[in-house]
Amino acid sequence: MINWSTIDTVLLDMDGTLLDLHFDNYFWLHHLPKRYAESHSVELEQARKHIHEQIKNLEGTLQWYCLDHWSELMRLDVPALKHEVKHKIQIRPHAERFLQELRQLGKKLVLITNSHPAGLELKLQVTKIDRWLDIIISSHQFQSPKEDLRFWQQLQLEEPFDPERSVFIDDSPRILRSAEDYGVKHLVCITRPDSQKPAHDSSPFIGINDFDELLPLQNEGATWAKKH
Ligand SMILES: [Mg+2]
User: Fold this and answer.
1) Ligand 1 center–CA 42 separation, angstroms
2) Dist CA 192 CA 207 (whole Å)
3) In angstroms, rounded to a whole number, what is the distance separating the alpha carbons of residues 107 and 101?
4) pTM for the full model?
5) Centroid of ligand 1 to alpha carbon of 28 (angstroms)
6) pLDDT tens-digit profile of 39-56?
7) Cα(147)–Cα(114) distance, integer angstroms
């Protein structure tokens, strides 16, 4: 699927790629509406509708991902509410093994996320995936989400990479298209980012359901299983 000898840099999304999107969907669709309804004494349905409308209005913008903006909009401490359900944060199947094998091969591992620094910090604290990563970048640092070409231009200035020898893995075809426009050659889409929901269409990108489909040392799988 990917010829790993042609790759130097692996760019990885976090939510829905390395981590199960179920946490985020649960938070935005269930937990936040519930706490909003309780705090502002409105019906749950009304809270859901209100939040859904705000989500639709901001989709694809950096504000959509900005927890400070959401805290203001909701008149609630959104990072604190995330802490309440942090037990739902999970690493996706075989993601750790995938990262470990890539490290073994000397690839540069760069996490690029639209997650707000507060949400990012919570997820790293719970999952400790940062131990496998070389660099962690939140698009908030660049004031442009990954959907925006300027994100990629700034990433190149901050952490030079050869787009021809890079692979980018994300669960959003819209974001993958933006990487494609910038010139990233190898693009992989996660087809089932939320373990509790059905798979989505990944076309025109290569789709994978599980990181075991991409393991570079797959043929040595039996040896790895014995050692761990
Ligand atoms: Mg994602």
Assistant:
1) 31
2) 9
3) 9
4) 0.92
5) 14
6) 999 999 999 999 999 999
7) 9
